[in-house]
Design brief:
Family: Belongs to the LysR transcriptional regulatory family.
Organism: Enterobacter soli
GO cellular component, one term: cytosol
Domain HTH lysR-type: 7-64
Shape: elongated
Keywords: DNA-binding, Transcription, Transcription regulation
Number of helices: 14
Amino acid sequence: MDKTMRFDLISLSLFVAVAETQNLTHAARIKHTAVSAVSKRISELEQQVGTQLMLRMPRGITLTPAGHSLLYHARQVFRNLEKMEEELSDYAAGIRGHIRIYTISAALMNHLPRVVSDYLSHYPQTDIEIEEQTGMSVVQGLLAGEADVGFFSSWTPSAGIEYWPWQHDLLSVLVWPSHPLAARSELTFADIVNEKMIGSHRNSAVSHILERQARALGKTLNMGLRVSSFVSMAELVAQQLGIAVLPVNEVASSTLHSGVRVIPLTEPWARRDLLVGVRDYGQASPSVKTLLGNLLPAEQAVQPEGEAERR
């Protein structure tokens, strides 16, 4: 015997309206429906689920625990319907998908442009938005539903996110050509800890790890300037206003500025993973899954590392 409950969308919509206004009359007015019809729909829902969903109080409506549960799931249903309608409208308009990407600077500078270019060569009508953010803002954007895909580093706490290893990078030191360290092929953090530095914004993962490593050496970093752009940092280095530490080991000096040298740090902690993540792979749009499929082996995309950690 099939015991699956089949809910009517009109009844669910009326239920949500009543729950949100906490008043049958107000909900009926919003939905352009008679109060008696709204009350009848709610009663039918309660009969269907086999328990009371609302308490009729003198001054309005109060949800029971079962009512709160139904409200949560009903809202999810309508959000998914809106997402479906938006995506199908995109197909009808020839866009064939919309992807919102939040990314840290390192991914945007080193790898992401190639990824986007390759994807758009196969799906040229996809609409892609890219916003540069700090690692924490990338994760928060994914959790809030503001971003569909996020690129961040393994240094960033990522609870609640499904993610996969994607690339690796290495912190490197930017110096001007006549700087005493410019002739070196590699550097340790002790070589630069006393230098005047140009730092990224205070909330960046790079800033946090450099400050932590300086404290481990009993030092305090001399941050003369802070800017958020890698290119701006390189410009300031070229003007000999300080050195900088950035995850740009694979970027040619001339890409940032012809007046700087890029020298890798040899510290083990200077190496990190770049991750790609989503809030919920199972709920991701076909466009997002296709993008991830281009980045990752199929079996890896199905089982993200972040999901395993949360279980």
